[in-house]
Amino acid sequence: MQDKRQHKRVSKRVKSQVEHSDMLTYSSTQDLSSGGLFISTPDPVPPGSEVSLSIKLPDGELLSLKGIVRWTKDEGRDDSKAGMGIEFVDLSEEDSKKLSKHL
Q: What is the mean pLDDT of residues 25-40?
């Protein structure tokens, strides 16, 4: 299967918080790119949902971002974690530079 991603992913665990409607999830990223991230959570929100997220970068800096859930994954037999792929929306140039330092 061909990978449709526009941005290179790196395996990176950083603390994260995702808000959607009346739901708040604390988790960690499994991978990160300049275009989005995958967050492990047993209760992903539906694809197409707009979310607010905060990620704590390895240097301690906190980024507050907006995103759209592009896909979700249920826990599988292959020991992979359930979660959701989130694409960043309206990422500022400053936040993009901060993020790129860790990729």
A: 89
